Amino acid sequence: MINKGNLLSEGKAKSLFETDQQEKLLMVYRDDTSAFDGKKKEALKGKGEINNKFNAHIMKYLEDNGIQTHHIETISENESLVRRLDMLPVECVVRNIATGSICRRLGVKQGLVFEEPLFEFFLKDDDLGDPLINDNHIIAFKWGTADEIEIMKEKTLIINGLLCKIFSEVGLTLVDYKVEFGRSGGDIILGDEFTPDGCRIWDKETGESLDKDRFRKDLGDVVESYQIVAHKLGISI
Ligand code: C5P
Prior knowledge:
Helix content is about 30%, strand content about 35%. By secondary structure, it is α+β, with helices and mostly antiparallel strands. Helix 1 (about 45-65) packs parallel to helix 6.
């Protein structure tokens, strides 16, 4: 039995609490959904529960395939226990197909399928709008070491291979996604979450978006689309 402690941080869609065990934190998935640096916000009923279960399924799959993650166990419909990590303040984004911010930033056409997955670092800073950064920035400002950069890139790309496979097998394309890592006892471990809030998933046949782009673009059926993806992946909600 674990008891909930003080609120440690409140993100746009999740809250993180301490517990009575120093090394374990409680991650609460809320229904809150936000886009465009928090300018668009809405609570979508049932999203917290789906994301909690979705994330647990993906984290378990990654663990089973050699990627250490902070996930320990789900303890309620919308809560999971995780290992406490010292998070690196960067977001690791991998793109298999060009869409979203890369098209806006570089003026490139949407839909280009990259021959090799394209990796980008962004600084986690809401006030600055999470700007694109490179390895040199990370080292110069001591956000991470050269070794940590290499490990994050390597793990993010291994994750891409593992996830593209399971999505593809059920008729879905993993277009792009964001992951975050943290330090724990000398290791670099996958933290945060992997849910349709932080990735783009397209139906292979129709090209339909089944992720948070439905919310960003006012396409409707946001939670229903997350449910479709979960169902295809064999996640019971
Ligand atoms: O916005 P952009 O095209 O750079 O996003 C790339 C991928 O990273 C998308 O799947 C998006 O959902 C995810 N992302 C995220 N959190 C951010 C920025 C991007 O989950 N702060």
